[in-house]
């Protein structure tokens, strides 16, 4: 068995027609996979990413709007409370003024009534004194007439 030292087949690097065919097969498979699988998958991932970004933007806008509305409502509530407190304070002041004026009016009426009653009692007293003086005078005249007649 003799070996030929000129040509060894099946070595590690065999450059024949299969190498370019394998390279073409690899490129064709890469292009087909890219068109069929990777491109639609990338489009789906891009759409999902855009949807998430839009959702986050919308959520941020809604949150910002909710915060603005909350702040506005809190300011309105504070103003309403202040107005209500002012109204209550004014109502209490008005009620206090009305009560004070009614008390003064009642005191004035009571003073007027006492003055009128005092005046009427003085008039009745004077009338009673005059009546008593007349009766005393009549009785003294009667006593005098009886004493003189006896």
From TrEMBL:
Keywords: ATP synthesis, Cell membrane, CF(0), Coiled coil, Hydrogen ion transport, Ion transport, Membrane, Plastid, Transmembrane, Transmembrane helix, Transport. It comes from the Eukaryota. The chain crosses the membrane at residues 20-38. It is found in: Cell membrane; Membrane. InterPro entries: ATP_synth_b, ATP_synth_B-like_membr_sf, ATP_synth_b/b'su_bac/chlpt, ATP_synthase_B_chain. Residues 63-94 form a coiled coil. One of its GO terms (molecular function) is proton-transporting ATPase activity, rotational mechanism. The keyword Transmembrane helix applies. It is a single-pass membrane protein. Gene3D superfamilies: 6.10.250.1580. One of its GO terms (cellular component) is proton-transporting ATP synthase complex. Belongs to the ATPase B chain family. F-type ATPases have 2 components, F(1) - the catalytic core - and F(0) - the membrane proton channel. F(1) has five subunits: alpha(3), beta(3), gamma(1), delta(1), epsilon(1). F(0) has four main subunits: a(1), b(1), b'(1) and c(10-14). The alpha and beta chains form an alternating ring which encloses part of the gamma chain. F(1) is attached to F(0) by a central stalk formed by the gamma and epsilon chains, while a peripheral stalk is formed by the delta, b and b' chains. Component of the F(0) channel, it forms part of the peripheral stalk, linking F(1) to F(0). The b'-subunit is a diverged and duplicated form of b found in plants and photosynthetic bacteria. F(1)F(0) ATP synthase produces ATP from ADP in the presence of a proton or sodium gradient. F-type ATPases consist of two structural domains, F(1) containing the extramembraneous catalytic core and F(0) containing the membrane proton channel, linked together by a central stalk and a peripheral stalk. During catalysis, ATP synthesis in the catalytic domain of F(1) is coupled via a rotary mechanism of the central stalk subunits to proton translocation. NCBIfam families: PRK07353.1 (NF005607). This is ATP synthase CF0 subunit II.
């Amino acid at each position: 068995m003799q070996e030929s030292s000129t040509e060894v087949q099946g070595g590690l690097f065999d450059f024949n027609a299969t190498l370019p065919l394998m390279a073409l097969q690899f490129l064709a498979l890469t292009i087909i996979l890219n068109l069929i699988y990777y491109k639609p998958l990338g489009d789906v991932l891009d759409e999902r990413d855009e949807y998430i970004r839009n959702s986050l933007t919308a959520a941020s806008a809604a949150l910002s709007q909710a915060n603005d509305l909350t702040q506005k409502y809190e300011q309105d509530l504070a103003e309403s409370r202040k107005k209500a407190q002012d109204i209550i304070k004014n109502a209490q002041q008005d009620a206090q003024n009305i009560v004070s004026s009614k008390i003064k009016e009642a005191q004035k009426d009571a003073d007027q009534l006492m003055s009128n009653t005092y005046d009427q009692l003085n008039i009745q007293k004077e009338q009673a004194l005059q009546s008593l003086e007349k009766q005393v005078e009549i009785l003294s005249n009667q006593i005098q007439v009886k004493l003189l007649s006896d």
